[in-house]
Amino acid sequence: MARMADTSTATAAHDTDVAIIGGGMVGASLALGLAGTGVRVLLIESTPFDSAAQTSFDERTTALGNASRRIFSGLGVWDTIAPAAAAIRDIHVSDAGRFGFSRLNAREQGVDALGYVVANRIIGAALWGALTRAPGITLRVPARAEDLDISPTGVGFTLGDGSGGRERVTARLVVAADGAHSQVRVAAGIEAAVEDYEQIAVVANVAAEHAHHGTAYERFTPAGPLAVLPLRDGTYAVIWACRPAQAQEVLALGEGAYLASLQAQFGWRAGRFVRASRRGSYPLKLTRAASTVATRTVLIGNAAQALHPVAGQGFNLGLRDAAMLAEVLANAQGDVGAPQLLRQFSDWRARDREGVTRFTDGLVKLFADTRPGVPLLRNLGLLMFDLAPPAKGALARVSAGFGGPAPRLARGLPVRHV
Ligand SMILES: Cc1cc2nc3c(=O)[nH]c(=O)nc-3n(C[C@H](O)[C@H](O)[C@H](O)COP(=O)(O)OP(=O)(O)OC[C@H]3O[C@@H](n4cnc5c(N)ncnc54)[C@H](O)[C@@H]3O)c2cc1C
C-alpha cells in the first residue's frame, strides 16, 4: 500500500469484522448487502460519491441486467434508481458494412425489459444515500488505508484521512473493492495478468431525431465495437471503442464533426444525430487477478477482473460477486475470515467469472479478426443467431450469470437464510 509521511501517531482504534476498501459501485453494494446482518462493516472510500473526482460514479452510464435489478431491489435501492432508468426493450446487433444482424426482443423473451440503462451518478447517490442510514455500517470517507498487514490471525492497517487524522484498524477480513489498479491486491501478494486491447472507449451522450423506443444497438466496426444505449431522457449513451490514434482524433473533433463521424460509423437507424455532450475516454484492458482470495483477503469487482465494456458485463458480474460475498459472510458461523469460507466463495464464483470473462474477451477478438473468411463466418453467425430461438434465449440469460450458484439476492431472496 502507498505510505503517507508519518506526521502523527495513530490516536484512535477501530475493530471490525469486515473492512471493505473501495466504496465504488461494487464495494458500496457489498456494504449495503451486509447492513443489518450482524456483521460489523467498515467501508473506506478515498473520494466522496458526489465529488467530480470520483472515478466509479462518474459521467458514464451502466447497462444493468435483470439479475442486477433484483439485487438492487434486495438492497432497497431499486425504487430510487428506477425513475431514472431506461428500459431496454430491443437489442440490435450488427457488423458494419456487412449483411448479418440480429435482434433481441424483450416480449419474445418473456421479460418486461432485457436490461436497464442508468447514469453511474444515480447509482452512486442511491447506494450512498442508503448507506448513511444502514445499521452496522461505519463509513470512512475520504480516507485511505495504509501499511496493510495481513496475517493468518487477522488484518491490521492505518487509516489516513488526508489531513493528518489517523486511526488504527483491526479486522477479520479485508475486501478489495478498490478497482482495476487494486493496491489491496498487491499488498495481499496476488498477481494480476493485464492484456491491453489497444482500444480506447470514447463516451458521450448524444441526442437523435427519432425517439429510441427502448432500442439498444451494438455495432461492430473495423476499429472496435460501438454501443448506443437508450437513456431515460430520450437521448443515447454512446460508447465507441476505437484504436488509440483514432480515439485521439475523435476526442479532438468539434461537436458537428464528431456527430458526422459517429453517423458514418453507425448509420441512420436512430435518425440524424443532432447534439452531443462533452466526451470522456477510458483505455480498455483485460485485468484478471490470479486468485480472488488469499489469507483473510477477498477481491471483488474490478479488483478481481476488469473487462472490456463491449457487452456491458463488468459491473453486472462485480455486483454478483458482492451479492454472493454478502450472502457467504452474513450466513457464516463464526470467523468471517476463515479460509474454508473464502474458498467456498471463490469456488461458487469461479464459473460465472470465467464464463463472462471468456465471453467478453472472445467477442472483442472475434469482431476484431480481419483474417479472410472470419467476417463472413461471424455474419453467418449473427444471421443464424437471429433465426435460432434457443441461441437468443441463451443471450437473454447472459444477464443472470454464466453458471455456478446464483446469489440469493439475484433470485429475489434476502441475504440471510432465515
Ligand atoms: C466505458 C465503460 C463503460 C462500461 N459500461 C458498463 C455497462 O454498461 N455495464 C456493466 O456491467 N459494466 C460496465 N462497465 C464496467 C464497470 O464500470 C465496472 O465494472 C465497475 O465500475 C467496477 O466497479 P468497482 O466498484 O469494482 O471498481 P471502480 O469503479 O474502479 O471503483 C473503485 C473504488 O475504489 C476507490 N478506491 C480506489 N483505491 C482506494 C483506496 N486505496 N482507498 C479507498 N478507496 C479507494 C475509488 O475511489 C472507487 O470509488 C463499463 C466500463 C467502462 C470503462
Explain what you see.
This protein is of the alpha+beta class and 418 residues long. It has eleven helices and 20 strands. The chain has helices at residues 25-34, 66-74, 78-81, 120-131, 183-187, 244-252, 255-266, 314-330, 339-368, 374-387, 389-397, and strands at 12-21, 41-44, 61-64, 86-88, 90-95, 101-105, 115-119, 137-140, 144-151, 154-160, 166-176, 192-208, 215-221, 224-230, 236-242, 273-276, 280-289, 293-294, 297-299, 305-306. Strands 5, 6, 12, 13, 14, 15, 16, 17 and 20 form a nine-stranded mixed sheet that branches. Strands 1, 2, 8, 9, 10, 11, 18 and 19 form an eight-stranded mixed sheet that branches. The chain is globular, with a radius of gyration of 22 Å. Flavin-adenine dinucleotide binds at residues 21-27, 44-47, 55-56, 60, 62-63, 144-145, 177-179, 183, 201, 203, 239, 282, 301-302, 309, 312-316, 318.
So what's the CATH class of the domain at 12-84 and 115-194 and 285-370 and 401-411? Alpha Beta
In round numbers, the mean pLDDT is 90
The number of distinct helices, counting runs of at least 4 residues, comes to 11
State the fourth-level CATH superfamily of the domain at 12-84 and 115-194 and 285-370 and 401-411: FAD/NAD(P)-binding domain
What is the beta-strand fraction? Answer: 25-35%
Ions and ligands: flavin-adenine dinucleotide
Q: Might you state the CATH topology name of the domain at 12-84 and 115-194 and 285-370 and 401-411?
A: FAD/NAD(P)-binding domain
Parts with pLDDT < 50 across at least 5 consecutive residues: 1-8
Rough shape? globular
Termini, distance in Å? 39 Å
Please give the share of residues in helix: 25-40%
CA gyration radius, whole angstroms: 22 Å
